[in-house]
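Supplementary Note 2. Why include the ligand at all?

Several targets in our set were suspected to adopt different conformations when bound, so apo predictions alone were not considered sufficient. For every target with a known small-molecule partner we therefore ran a joint prediction. The input for zinc ion is given below.
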Amino acid sequence: MARPRGARRLAVAAAGLILLTACTPPPPGLPDSDPPDPTRTVLGPQPPVECAPVVDTEASFDPGAPGLCDSYYPQAGNGGYDVEDYHLDLTYDPATQTLRGVATITATATANLRTFNLDYYGPDIESVRVDDQSAATEYSGGELVVTPAEPIEAGTRFTIVARYGGKPRGYPGASGPSTGFLVTDDGAIALGQPQSAAAWFPVNDHPRDKATYTIAISVPSNLAALSNGVLESRREGPMGFTTWTWRESSPMAPYLATMVVGNYRVVTGTHDGRPVVTAVHTSLPTSVDAELARTTEVIDYLQTVFGPYPFDALGGIVVNAPLGYALETQARPVYDQSFFNVDQGGASWVIAHELAHQWYGDSVSIDDWREIWLNEGFATYAEWLWNEHSGTQRSGGATVQATFDTWYRIFSDNERLWRVPPGDPGADDLFHQAVYIRGAMTLHALRRTVGDEAFFRILPEWASRQKDTTGTTMEFIALAEEISGQELDQLFHDWLYSPKRPPRP
Ligand code: TRP
Ligand code: ZN
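The joint prediction is reproduced in token form.
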């Protein structure tokens, strides 16, 4: 089949992701004839990175790589092993603002390892043991290098136990002021994207290494300690502390793990047999609880378009700290209160956005931060669908088509929205509105091209086929072509990779 030029570029981009060992600069993803945008900082060659996740020698034992060659965050994650489970035993004391932790990490070596790295920006490490033997550690710049007493053979499962404690430090890799570990008046919030987990536990911090989690948090008994998944137990312990134990049994990307401690009104219930836990900070009016309770109604609607809800628990947490964000933390998004006090048809649109991420972002995760549109474009499109379904009046329009038309008209030819390609926005523009709005417009352009019948088969099929793993833009395009029977490379090229306004679909 003859493929337009954009298609070849996409194919090259995909090859770049598969050949991880070389860590060559990512292809720009733009046709040769398009002039480079001087405001872009990442389209050019990336600085070379020492990065070889697959160790090439069979006989020798080498250090695991300090990064996974992500296009935007080459040092994120580590090579040479794959984590299955994190068991975090944490104690947070707001009186001293200290976090103590014992992280038990079960992993399998994917290479012969003499040393391996964990990403870490948390309180001081006291000790690390590997398979019950004391291990040597070295720390620099967010990388905890562990030398186990015995080298680890490829294919071997091993257990790391790291003990740490003290005041959580700042998170230098943070993209926003409120990412990482935030101390609040009455507790703390661990939250953030693209990286945040390393602020509170040693981790293989990349969405490509998903794992299950047990998160047990001990806090003074008058406070709540909220996290992901199912609340397995809440037990009073010594010294007036209570331990809240949470279990996320579906594989989770590290940045989707959260810990929220403070004075919260916690409401528990069930929905379709799944436990629901919602929590609202006690300083906020009870109208917030009523709005957050729409979570189950939104889930019911989203299931009609995306297929079955992918996790075994649900809920949401509204905090009073000025995050400026909501985040799709797995099974239990965290919302800034500001979404709940504006009278613009309520907060159900942001609930729809974060819950849509449970399918797109959390259950199906991105394999490379460059492909963030697969999260944000989908979640924004879900907002538009929800607004049309529920009659929620929000900027854009009453229907999805009207919303698309509004954005297409409002953004004139030379707006940055058309110059930032959502398929490769650059690290500095990871959360640019091109990723959200133009990303959602990409899906609408796809819908216009393949028709409603095919489009509404593509969305749930993407969620079910890639469930609990990662998915790439190439795989999404292949699925859309498979279901529609159409050649779609030009469409995706125009909408995801071109630095100019695509033709109206
Ligand atoms: N992914 C979040 C959303 O779209 C937004 C977000 C971007 C965010 N960067 C963040 C949230 C940093 C918390 C911290 O809903
Ligand atoms: Zn989002």
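The chain has a mean pLDDT of 88. The domain at 37-262 is CATH 2.60.40.1730 (Immunoglobulin-like). Comparable summaries for the other entries are listed in the accompanying table.
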